[in-house]
Amino acid sequence: MATDGMLSTREVADLCRVTTAAVRQWRRRGHITADGLDERGRPLYRQLTAARAEAKTRSKAGRLVSVAPIPAAAAAGTSPAAQAAAVAIAAAAPSRARTAEAA
Question: Which one, 1, 13, 37, 80, has the greatest CB density within 10 A?
Answer without folding.
Answer: 13
